[in-house]
Every structure is written in C-alpha cells, then in structure tokens.
Specification:
This protein is of the alpha/beta class and 212 residues long. It has a single domain, classed as Rossmann fold. The protein is built from six helices and nine strands, in the order ααβαβαββαβββαββ. The chain has a seven-stranded mixed beta sheet, sandwiched between helices. It has a two-stranded antiparallel sheet with strand order 6-7. Strand 1, helix 3 and strand 2 form a beta-alpha-beta unit.
C-alpha cells in the first residue's frame, strides 16, 4: 500500500501537464488569482530579498511572479514538476523533496509562500511544518498560505481524468490553522475564503513577530 506522500508524488508526476500548462494567459483565472496574491505579498518586500515557494509545482505562475523581483527557491515532491520548473523559471533555484523533512538555515527567508500544498501532507505533520516555516523566516518575515477551509482527509483515483493520476489530501479547518499559526508565534494579518467548486480553501497572510 502506497504512503500518502508517494501517492502525491506519483500523482503529480502523472497529472503535471494536465494540472498546469507551461504558460498561463493573463486573462486566465488562475493567472489573475496568483498574481493578485503575489503582488499583495510583494508590496511588503524589497527587491532582491529571499523567498521560498513550498509546493511550487512546475513554477507557473507563483514562482515566476516571485522570481521577477526576488531570489526564489522552489520546492516540490514531484520530479516531473521540478524538471519543468527548472526549464520554465531558470532564474530560480529548485529542490525536489518533501517539504516537511527539509531543513533550511534559521531566518533564511524574507517570505514563504505555500499555495495549495500543505493540504497534501498528512495532517499530523502539518503543525510541525508550520513551526519549521516560522524558524526559516527572518524576523517580521511573511507567510502566505492556502489551507483547507473545512476538515477533510481523502483520496481520488484518476484525478483530473488522468489514468493512474491518484491524489491525496488532508487538512484541518480554518480555525485550527489560524490557531496553529498563532501558537507558533505568527501574527495573522488577514485571512480570506477562496471558493472553488462546491467548496473552497482559506488564504492566510501572516507575519513572524520580532524577537523580544
């Protein structure tokens, strides 16, 4: 029986091109959504600062947008996604690996984004990952995070109509994520509901507190 992370890795290897094209039109809904989020983050940063994109996928479009102004490292568990990202966003650096087991230097990044990615990690590992993210951020660094809105764990077969493209999700609800972030030490600047189909996700913007 495959582990949840193996399901995610192999699933994205198979659905990579179906999930996201090499290029998005500026009129595409996903393009506009991600651009508004990255632009909202960018206004708090200075050109040339460091950013980490956890669950970067093929680099389109969040890593691309970040790389226009910042020194970006992208992380994804799927080798296919990372291979595409290296070609599509050559100005960024990429790591193929499990974000929950990676280690970066303390206070290495000015900003971290994790968009629709933490929800593919087993729920019992997520609070610890948020603690690590807090440590990786510089004082007053920023986190932009897309989480689940309601609690749910489950799998899908042939996701997006791709044969063998199985997928796994696991997430808590909005209130739990906000509490976890505050427990770690983040200040919540705002959160928003992002509708999708019959359900939706929560977009959270948080800041690491100054050293006392």
């Amino acid at each position: 029986m495959k582990s949840p992370k193996k399901i995610v890795q192999e699933g994205y290897d198979k659905v990579s091109h179906t999930y996201r094209a090499d290029e998005l039109s500026p009129t595409d809904e996903s393009y506009q959504k991600y651009k508004s989020w990255v632009d909202g983050l960018a206004q708090y940063l200075k050109k040339g600062q460091t950013a980490l994109d956890l669950g970067c996928g093929n680099g389109v479009p969040s890593t691309q947008f970040l790389a226009q102004n910042f020194k970006v490292t992208g992380v994804d568990i799927s080798p296919v996604q990372i291979e595409r990202a290296q070609k599509l966003v050559p100005e960024a650096s990429f790591i193929c690996g499990d974000m929950s087991t990676l280690n970066f230097a303390p206070e290495e990044f000015n900003a971290i984004v994790c968009l629709y990615a933490i929800i593919h990690i087993p729920l019992e590992e997520q609070a610890e990952l948020l603690e690590k993210i807090y440590q990786w951020l510089k004082p007053e660094g920023f986190l932009m995070l897309v989480t689940g809105h309601n609690e749910w764990t489950g799998e899908a077969s042939d996701w997006l109509g791709v044969e063998g493209g199985d997928m796994y999700w696991s997430h808590a609800d909005r209130k739990t994520y906000l509490q976890w972030l505050q427990d770690v030490g983040f200040s919540i600047l705002w959160d928003r509901y992002i509708p999708e189909g019959d359900g939706g996700h929560t977009l959270i913007f948080a800041r690491k507190n100054k050293h006392e």
